[in-house]
């Protein structure tokens, strides 16, 4: 699977998006992340594995804990793809508006 598909696939789930949003504010342990949800710590760990596979997060060693760290640069490809395609659709919308304006002028 390509990098962009891994990133979008990982971000497709609202729980994982919430985890990414939380980690954007700073590192957190699995226990801290689990407190955000009404799901088990084991379920949160499964979501973290998906995010790790997409390389959106990593885990570091800090004494006895293993905090999760957001790897924000991995979002760059997704951000770039969205920006590029947003421009494509904006250009298409502009051309459609021009075409409709011409059609209205012909009537």
TrEMBL record:
Q: Which residues form the signal peptide?
A: none
Q: Name one GO molecular function term.
A: DNA-binding transcription factor activity
User: Which SUPFAM superfamilies does the annotation name?
Assistant: Winged helix' DNA-binding domain
Limits of the HTH arsR-type domain: 1-90
In its UniProt entry, what is this protein called? ArsR family transcriptional regulator
Taxonomic lineage: Bacteria, Bacillati, Actinomycetota, Actinomycetes, Micromonosporales
Alphabetical list of InterPro entries matching this protein: ArsR-like_HTH, HTH_ArsR_DNA-bd_dom, WH-like_DNA-bd_sf, WH_DNA-bd_sf
Task: Show the Pfam families listed in the entry.
Answer: HTH_20
